[in-house]
Amino acid sequence: MARGEAGSGLGLSIDRILQLGSARLRDNLVATIDKFTTEVGLTGYATYVIDDGAPIGYRLAASHPERISAIVVQNGNACDEGQVSR
C-alpha cells in the first residue's frame, strides 16, 4: 500500500485537496487503510513511511501498535501542518 503525491490515484487535483483540507484527506486515508487491513485479516505488518505520507503510517501505528513490527522512515515528517501547499 502506498500513498505518494497528494491525491495521486484518487482522482483529486491539488485544488480539490486544498478545498477538502489535507487533514480530512489524511483522516480518510487512515480510515480506508485501517478498514482494508482489518478486512483482509492483517494482524501484523511493518510500515515504510516517506515524505508527506509519513503521518498516515504513524497514525496507523498509534491506532494499532500491536500490529506493527517495524517502522522504517525515509525523510518522513511528524507534523500535520504544511502537508499540502502550493
List the helices and strands and how they pair.
Blueprint: H1 14-20, H2 22-39, E1 45-50, H3 54-63, E2 68-74
Parallel strand pairs: 1-2
Helix pairs in contact: 2-3
Order of helices and strands: HHEHE
Helix content: 40-55%
Instruction: List low-confidence stretches.
Output: none
- From the spread of the alpha carbons, the general shape counts as globular
Proportion of strand residues: 15-25%
Tally of DSSP helical segments: 3
Strand elements, count: 2
Structural class determined from secondary elements: alpha+beta
The Cα radius of gyration reads: 13 Å
**Integer tally of domains:** 1
Whole-number mean pLDDT: 78
How is the biggest beta sheet arranged?
2 strands, parallel
Strand order within the widest beta sheet: 1-2
State the distance separating the first and last CA atoms. Answer: 26 Å
Structure report:
This protein has 86 residues and is of the alpha+beta class. The chain has one domain (14-74). It is built from 3 helices and 2 strands; from the N terminus they run ααβαβ. It has a two-stranded parallel ribbon. Helix 2 packs across helix 3 (54-63).
